[in-house]
Amino acid sequence: MIRLLFVIPILVFIACNKKSYVNTTRQLLVRDLESLDTHLKSRFLDGYKEVGDAGSGHISLTKKENLSIDNGVVFASSKKGFVWQRRMQDTIKLSFYNIDNSGDTEVTNIVQAAIETAHVLDVGVIHFQDGKYLIDQLDFHPGVEFLGSKHTILFKMPSDDRFKRLFTSKKNQYFSDSPSNWLKFTNLKFDGQSELCGLYNKFELEHQQLIFLAAQQDSKGRLRVEINNCHFQNGTSDGIHVYHNVDARIYNCTAENVFRGGIVIGGGNSKIVVNNFASWGNRHKTGIDVEVDGKGYKQSYRVDIKMTNLKLAGDCDIAVRDGYFYGKNIKCTESPYNFAARNGTIFIEDSDQEIVKISFRSKGKFSVNQFARSYFDGGGHDNAAGARSIASLEQTVEKFTGLVAKHQQDILVSYEI
Q1: Count of CB atoms within 10 A of residue 319's CB?
Q2: Are residues 204 and 108 in the same domain?
Q3: C-alpha 281, offset from chain centre
Q4: Cα angle value 259/262/265 (rounded, 5°)
């Protein structure tokens, strides 16, 4: 199936940073190496070698005065003025922080400490082991991967603050002339705990996104993000919200009972690629929404979006104010497609069905309802109608352009009224 959108009479043819440091007054984990039993030695020191060895990190004596952060693996030393510090070059495992992964205790400060550690030490990965983590709000930096395990769930603490997001960059929003390093979310499950929140069905908590992505509005460089194999559930707002100046790649993700949508795109100067996304729900069917109302770099509303292999129980709402949307193999199982474009292009194709689906839009008195009924076996409303064609895409476009030429005077007169 190929879906087209024709807009009449406009005749737009649419074929479907500063580095931050953690306060060091609170040591999250301090132990004397001599007091560690065999289990703890293995847990904290295994795989880490002395300076010069081919390990993934090392233990070294460090002057206390030179410690700029608490990275969770600082140990007391008998040498006055020094501590043992394990330096991390690739991965911070949150188990190093003695973190509670039962979901009973809030762990926001501990995870944020790990985020700042990764940022300052240029560590590539923060690893959440199996378990449940109760989190209020985290501010991320680009250049790190949040990596989960098979049974990792991040629970958002219930809040009445409509701007309380699980992951955001409110304090560390990216700004540069060049694209950021890649921020990644991999193998994670996000739970908004909507059943424990207050009223939200009338959009009272509409900005409580589970992941909110944006660079500063006047940033020429985009925040680059990859989200892979993640699941979003029980959200009072959006699963993923892509705002202005973002280059987002979303692969193999799912969403369930997320109120506003599993993926929502709301800001300009952004590029988005989505492949293999499914959404459903017994309370909120959950779909996707493209509704760009935030200006990006140079006051741009432009978006360039490619979405393939989507199966949605909720709405597929695509409104391209400026730019391009390409979709292929998008299935809406229970809800309608809704398309609109002002200065943009929408092209959607589905190779599973050998038909072309068409949407017509008009302004003024020209009735696309009558137009669709007369020429494309369709119908609808005077300014919005749908139709279908069994001809090829090329033949359908050729027929449409010929009919527009035939009715050109009617369209122009209608538009002037």
Answers
A1: 18
A2: yes
A3: 19
A4: 105
